[in-house]
Write a structure and sequence with these properties.
470 residues; 3-stranded mixed β-sheet; 2,3-Dihydroxybiphenyl 1,2-Dioxygenase, domain 1; 18 helices; 16 strands; alpha+beta
Length: 470
């Protein structure tokens, strides 16, 4: 009897990422240039650095890696997004509040949908950074505008019942037969395609005066891919190559500086949002062409995940750079100050980053036949004697300030906000309630991976490993 071939969630995820890349490349051709240049940068970096270039992921993974970004307008839409992405083995991780991460008006709170298992990440690490409009935040929207937003958003349908039903089935069964998988992929990809339906001119530009991000969420009839991001191994090289091709980049690379020590967390940049033709419906009923600048081409370079202690140091360093830059002579580059601050505060080797408990690492037994000849040993002693080898855990998540910086750099103006008003409180627990499912704490995921590797190494060596990073 003939059996029906079924696709696993990671296979669905890989195909979904490819389809979205094809879609976005057709809508924003400059994205294809970004992908081409990213590939060139990675190939040259590998040739130059050999095996060391793959410490934070194989070239196959890095080349295939993408993260997308979408924006939705309500709790209902965000909960539906969670159902769609669960069909691809992607679950909400992390909470990001962009409202206070930028001086511009960016009234959104966010999470990111991605695989949570390290093996699943290795198969395909597709992520989608997903923002929800905080339309009840009085710093941005008065009561009348909030009511109009609620009415507009509740009247639209982003995801069909057929798509949601197929997504629920895939999530429950952890696989789908080929025919249903193909239909799921068709519907899911189409849900993120740029709508050709005319945009209400006056409503859109009323929102844009408040926030261009709000207009892109609550002023259009559907959601769409806002950007799709390849990963590079040398973002400074990519930045230079894109500018050499005549593509306008934002003013600076967001995140940590390029320095001689370990690469940590995430560095990001993008080309500037390009004018895209859209049709607008005017109050007289006539539809006329116009243009919007809301979508851009982002690229990222990923580093080592920092522990909570490491993140505290990172946040303090960012604040110190801000203070020093404000007092520096005009024209001083942020990166010059940041490099010095990094050298003062962070270890300049991966090993010390691990042993000081500032970064997350897995630990590999160098010689499986080795016997330490004792019942217990300190982690530092085992690493320094070469018995254990620390291997970095890649940072799979995002930085609120960097995300807001990318958004801000691509806005036509800062919008408006009234900081005399109280903001609506959001945190990871409240957004979990909105989603109707738990949002994973990324630190718990990284810590569990690190702990599991240390315990496995201890079993292999037949000892108890002590003095673990706190």
């Amino acid at each position: 009897m003939q059996t029906t071939t079924k696709l696993q969630l990671w296979e669905l995820r890989a195909e979904f990422a490819l389809r979205l890349a094809t879609l976005y490349g057709s809508e924003v051709p400059a994205y294809n240039t970004l992908v081409d240049v990213s590939r060139e940068v990675n190939e040259d970096f590998i040739r130059k650095n050999g095996q060391d270039a793959e410490r934070l992921g194989s070239i196959q993974r890095v080349t295939a890696e993408r993260h997308g970004a979408i924006r939705v307008g309500s709790a209902r839409e965000l909960a539906q997004v969670a159902r769609v992405f669960a069909a691809f083995g992607m679950y909400p991780v992390g909470f990001y509040d962009l409202r206070d991460a930028s001086k511009s008006s960016v009234p959104v709170v966010s999470t990111a949908f991605r695989p949570v298992d390290s093996d699943e990440l290795a198969k395909n690490p597709f992520r989608v950074f997903t923002s929800m409009l905080a339309h009840d935040d009085r710093r941005f929207f008065d009561a009348e505008t909030e009511k109009q937003l609620e009415s507009f958003i509740s009247a639209r349908t982003l995801f069909s019942e057929e798509l949601l039903a197929l997504a629920d089935k895939a999530s429950a069964e952890q696989e789908l037969p080929q025919e249903e998988a193909a239909r799921l992929l068709d519907l899911a990809t189409a849900a993120f395609e740029l709508s050709q339906e005319p945009v209400d001119h006056d409503w859109y530009f009323k929102l844009e005066k408040i926030s261009a991000v709000a207009a892109d969420i609550g002023g259009v009839p559907s959601t769409h891919i806002n950007h799709l991001t390849p990963r590079v191994l040398d973002i400074d090289d990519l930045y230079a190559r894109m500018e050499a091709r005549g593509i306008a980049m934002i003013d600076e690379i967001q995140g940590p500086p390029n320095w001689e020590g370990p690469d940590v967390l995430l560095r990001q940049t993008s080309f500037r949002a390009l004018a895209e033709e859209r049709n607008f419906r005017h109050p007289d009923g006539e539809v006329r062409p116009g243009s919007l600048r809301v979508r851009f081409g982002e690229v990222e370079q990923r580093g080592i995940a920092l522990t909570e202690c490491g993140r505290d140091i990172y946040d303090a360093m960012v604040a110190e750079v801000d203070t020093l830059l404000a007092a520096a002579p005009p024209g001083t580059a942020r990166v010059e100050i940041a490099e010095q601050v990094w050298r003062t505060n962070l270890p300049d080797t991966e090993q010390e980053l691990a042993l000081q408990g500032l970064g997350y690492f897995t630990y590999r037994v160098a010689d499986p036949g080795q016997n330490p000849g004792k019942e217990s040993a300190a982690l530092r002693d085992l690493v320094e004697s070469g018995v254990l080898v620390p291997e970095p855990i890649v940072y799979e998540d995002f930085l609120p300030r960097s995300a807001a910086g990318i958004f801000q750099s691509n806005l036509t103006d800062d919008g408006s906000r009234d900081d005399e008003q109280l903001g609506t409180p959001y945190d990871i627990d409240r957004l979990s309630e909105v989603l109707g499912t738990r949002i994973f704490d990324p630190n718990e995921l990284y810590s569990a991976q690190q702990t599991a590797s240390i315990e496995a190494a201890g079993r292999r060596l037949g000892i108890t490993i002590t003095n673990l990073p706190s």
